[in-house]
Specification:
CATH class: Alpha Beta
Structural class: alpha+beta
Radius of gyration: 17 Å
CATH architecture: 3-Layer(aba) Sandwich
Largest sheet: 7 strands, mixed
Distance between the termini: 34 Å
CATH topology: Aminopeptidase
Order of helices and strands: EEHHHEEEHEHE
Number of domains: 1
Strand content: 25-35%
Number of strands: 7
Length: 196
């Protein structure tokens, strides 16, 4: 067994890749939440929701992406974006389905704001995601999660019918030290270093 030390200011995560090759027989449980298509969001609108959903898990990839590259993704007609909306009409999560790979759909981002956690809403959202991903011409639905994500994420994907097929180790600068995310977010992941 080896243990490799990380450079100052770096984080590492074990990434697990999962897929399903046939449509599961899954029905979404009842929920007071709904999905609202996000038609042509601006980069700022998208990043605001992305940050509110992902900051507790150090999601930062779309926060550091330049606007033109982000707009090329979220403006692509083969990428479907949804805001999860609560009973009061407030955005409470997000779903991003990426159909750019022929015959496949990636659940690119699936998540809820922290106040929605632990209430069964994630099971509903994941069932909705899988249902919307499977359509004519789709032969594979895939997703990945990492060891920094919500502790229930991997089990939830497996319960929804996904099968793990690959793992990798990802190393990256701590986005809190870069000032991309607040120093106080994700307290479950120790912040080692000085915020710049």
């Amino acid at each position: 067994m080896s243990c490799d030390e990380l450079a100052a200011g770096q984080l590492a995560a074990v990434v697990t890749y999962l897929e399903m090759r046939q449509r599961p027989d899954v029905t979404a449980p009842p929920s007071p939440l709904s999905l609202r298509p996000m038609a042509n969001p601006t980069s700022a609108e998208y990043r605001d929701l992305f940050r509110r959903v992902g900051a507790p898990w150090l999601w930062f990839s779309r926060l550091i992406m330049d606007d033109s590259k982000l707009q090329a993704i979220i403006g692509d007609p083969r990428v479907e974006l949804f805001a999860v909306v609560d009973g009061d009409g407030r955005d409470a999560g997000m779903l991003e389905l990426d159909f750019r790979e022929p015959g496949a759909c990636e659940l690119a981002f699936v998540g809820l704001v922290p106040s929605m956690s632990g209430q069964g809403h994630g099971r509903w959202l994941l069932a909705e995601a899988v249902h919307r991903a499977w359509r004519d011409g789709i032969e594979r639905v895939h997703v990945h999660t990492c060891s920094l994500d919500h502790p229930a994420a991997l089990a939830a994907y497996r319960r929804a019918g996904f099968t793990p097929y690959k793992r990798a180790v990802e190393r990256f600068p701590d986005p809190r030290l870069l000032g991309v995310l607040p120093a106080g977010c994700a307290p479950q992941i120790p912040l080692l270093g000085t915020v710049g």
